[in-house]
Amino acid sequence: MNSTRAQPITDRAGTDLAPLFRPLKLGALSLPNRFVMSPMTRQHSPDGVPGENVAGYYRRRAEAGVGLIVTEGIGVDQPAAIGAGSMGEDNIPLLHGDAALAGWRRVTDDVHAAGGLIVPQLWHMGVIRIPGTGPVPDAPSLRPSGIWGPRDKAMMPPPYLEAMAEPTAPMSEEDIADVIAGFARSAANAKAVGFDGIAIHGAHGYLLDSFLWAATNHRADRWGGDIAGRTRLAAEVIRAIRQALGPELPIFYRWSQWKLHDYDAANATSPEEMEAHLAPLAEAGVDCFDISTRVFSKPGFPGSNLTLAGWAKKLTGKTVMAVGGVGLSKDLQTSFGGGTVAIDNLGEVASRVEAGEFDLIAVGRSLLVDPRWVEKARAGEPFEPFSLAAYGGLS
Prior knowledge:
By secondary structure, the protein is an alpha/beta fold. It is built from 13 helices and ten strands. It has helices spanning 52-63, 98-113, 158-164, 173-192, 207-212, 227-230, 232-245, 271-284, 308-316, 332-335, 346-354, 365-369, 373-379, and strands at residues 24-26, 29-31, 35-37, 68-75, 118-123, 198-201, 251-256, 288-292, 319-323, 360-363. Strands 3-4-5-6-7-8-9-10 form an eight-stranded parallel barrel, surrounded by five helices. It has a two-stranded antiparallel ribbon with strand order 1-2. Helix 9 links the parallel strand 8 and strand 9 (319-323). Helix 8 (271-284) crosses helix 9 (308-316).
């Protein structure tokens, strides 16, 4: 292989990666290994419709041994679900409408023909959506309490922050019911077009997370207040999705501390608070928690070396997926500044899986750069160097 295109990994010798290639049973799914393709916004679906290029993008990862694919975030069937965010998002796929569903049927057929498994990530942008953008520009952006949230730590362009400064009306009971129904309809659509389960985006400051976070949820009704109130919307969405799916297909839920507003934010400041957040979601029907961190190995709370994913496993007993910085020297946010290189930290991932700290590892940017990344990990081949150009394409 041309040395200008690949860099050898020198610290894999002696590392046992067998734990990462053991199968895992999850609901009706039998995953062949522990590698999951992390959801990454691609912006290649004009009018919300994924085309043959999108199908090929996912098929190539399935052909090369990814155990489970989680799609990019897909707009649920609610008018304000999708629009431009801080990065001017456009061409986001939808999970409703005949054309979009036909496109997703092509995707699932291609992935299954390649021997793969795939679930959609259901997404409602909520407070992050710029009002007046998206497929339904007239739809008001939905915020728990009408506020965008704290702006002093937000690493976002000033024009975006200015666009978000104007308060909106707090969400009404009708708005909340509409959101729950929209998630359920989209889950039913996903099942109908052949997806193998459902992933829910409940992190990073988007709609469901904005209810969990006290900085954006100032409500005094049953949808706010204490942790039990703030988790209620997410739990009701999960219950509605479970009813739409039936008992067999798994539900994945992405949960994070950090937000687009503030990378140092925290829904939970202690294991006890984290348990109070996750227990209602587990009871509502979550099969696997996708714990989103910027670096998977970072301790979750002071006084312990246990990662946030490890705490989720310990507190809920559910299957847990870790994510953040696998195969790369910088986290997602700092990688935009350049200088990111491929590294081999799979030995640490494997040892944590073997110890039972978490069960699955989500890989994002490394798989964006190279569809064969999992194949190369198994074979001990050199990884492709990281390139910022990968963010814009569908290799």
